[in-house]
Specification:
This protein has one domain: 3-Layer(aba) Sandwich (Rossmann fold), CATH 3.40.50. Helix 1 packs across helix 2. The strands form 2 sheets. The chain has a 6-stranded mixed sheet with strand order 5-4-3-6-7-8. It has 177 residues and is an alpha/beta fold. Helices cover 22% and strands 38% of the residues.
Length: 177
């Protein structure tokens, strides 16, 4: 599909599923090399990261674990810049290698809050992995260790990303028109 309509907004095709899958494979190759022997715990940030995490895990060949946290910072098409933890971490991460899995990093507020809260639990190291990154929107200085695709500062849906809960189910990514 070249365009989709969700609620009151029109969206045009921006990134094909083929391009997304190539980026996922590239990230997996790097993680398989960089984190070999570390048995990392991947923390998947819900809801948006579920598709990315699923595809990424199919490509990982290292021993690893997965858990989920849920935060929210968006209302409609804009960030509230207030991160709310809805489901927290239940595992003991002291001394562990942690990889935060995000669907998208834009301003960086969410990833900064998550990383800061995890640091209090004394992990050995924390890596950040994101499918999508908006460098022009990024306001923080936290290093992103694994980035799939850099994108413009457009509002997007698809591949787990939503507009008021809708649009997550598309394999491609669409931008608002």
């Amino acid at each position: 599909m070249k365009t989709v309509k969700i609620k009151d907004k029109e969206f045009a095709l921006s990134i094909t599923s083929d391009k997304i899958q190539k980026a996922v494979c590239n990230i997996a190759r790097k993680i398989n090399t960089d984190l070999a022997g570390k048995d990392p715990l991947f923390l998947v940030v819900l809801n948006g990261s579920f598709m990315f995490a699923s595809d990424l895990f199919k490509q990982l060949t290292i021993p690893c674990e997965m858990s989920f946290i849920k935060v929210t910072s968006y209302q409609g098409t804009s960030s509230t810049e207030e991160v709310k933890m809805l489901i927290g971490l239940s595992e003991n991460i002291k001394g562990r290698t942690i990889v935060i899995i995000e669907d998208i990093v834009d301003t960086g507020h969410t990833i900064e809050d998550i990383k800061n809260s995890l640091k209090l639990k004394d992990p050995a190291e924390i890596y950040i992995c994101t499918c999508l990154f908006k460098p022009k929107a990024y306001l923080k200085s936290i290093k992103l260790d694994y980035v799939g695709i850099e994108i413009p500062n457009d509002f997007i849906i698809g591949y787990g990303l939503d507009y008021d809960g809708f649009g997550r189910n598309y394999a491609d990514i669409y931008k608002i028109v």
